[in-house]
Specification:
The structure holds two protein chains of two kinds. Chain A is mostly beta strands. Helices cover 0% and strands 44% of the residues of chain A. In chain A, the strands form two sheets. In chain A, strands 1, 3, 4, 7, 8 and 9 form a six-stranded mixed sheet that branches. A three-stranded antiparallel sheet of chain A has the order 2-6-5, with no helix packed on it. In chain A, a hairpin with a 2-residue loop joins β5 and β6. Helix content of chain B is 0%, strand content 44%. In chain B, 44% of the residues are buried. The chains are: A mainly beta, B mainly beta.
């Protein structure tokens, strides 16, 4: 199975909103609500920011939100801040005890 | 505070073996499934393997099946990854992470991972 498809880069100015897509198939993103998003700053471990498509772990700002439509999941970052500049990865359960990640999106705050 | 600390990485020749460890603290280790995820230099994340809380269920990515073995010692709060027949493409930072629950039914142990360890670098090169 192939990795989920994410745009390699995204950008926005402070205060703006940006949306990152994560496209899969009906066998993964479209078939399960086990979609998660992770934020990774350079040289650091990934950090969970969204799970089960729309849920936010405690401590994650409500500027981060998730959604899904068909085979595409999305992460929206509202009110962009400088510290949001990082790599973002989506993941989805793909059935048969397999997990797929997206290729990652580098978010730049202009 | 939940903490995960990987160790055992390093430089190994192609065809060689290495065992990674992940020491857990701050939670009841024996109640949670645990996973390994890797990241090649400058690349994205790749799921490697997961083991249920009891150790009764284990699953692997096709890329490592038959070469890697995940295990755990709940008395030592430690997760392991035995890596054999290593290839250059196995070069990566390896992270261990905690799954949301103990069981793996219906993919529940592959739902999300939090937290992650700081990672350990494995380099396969001659």
């Amino acid at each position: 199975q192939s990795a989920l498809t994410q745009p390699p880069s995204a950008s926005g100015s402070p205060g703006q909103s940006v949306t990152i897509s994560c496209t899969g198939t009906s066998s993964d993103v479209g078939g399960y609500n086990y979609v998660s998003w992770y934020q990774q700053h350079p040289g650091k471990a990934p950090k969970l920011i969204i799970y089960e498509v729309t849920k936010r772990p405690s401590g994650v700002p409500d500027r981060f939100s998730g959604s899904k439509s068909g085979n595409t999941a999305s992460l929206t970052v509202s009110g962009l801040q400088a510290e949001d500049e990082a790599d973002y990865f989506c993941s989805s359960y793909a059935g048969s005890n397999n997990l797929l990640f997206g290729g990652g999106t580098k978010l730049t705050v202009l | 505070e939940v903490q995960l600390l990987e160790s055992g990485g390093g430089l190994v020749q192609p065809g060689g073996s290495l065992r990674l460890s992940c020491a857990a603290s701050g939670f009841t280790f024996s109640n949670y499934a645990m996973t390994w995820v890797r990241q090649a230099p400058g690349k994205g994340l790749e799921w490697v393997s997961v083991m249920s809380a009891s150790g009764g269920s284990t699953y692997y990515a096709d890329s490592v099946k038959g070469r890697f073995t995940i295990s755990r010692d709940n008395s030592k709060n430690t997760l392991y990854l035995q890596m054999n027949s290593l290839r250059a493409e196995d070069t990566a930072v390896y992270y261990c992470a905690k799954a949301p629950g103990g069981y793996c039914s219906g993919g529940s142990c592959l739902n999300w991972f939090d937290p992650w360890g700081q990672g350990i670098l494995v380099t396969v090169s001659s």
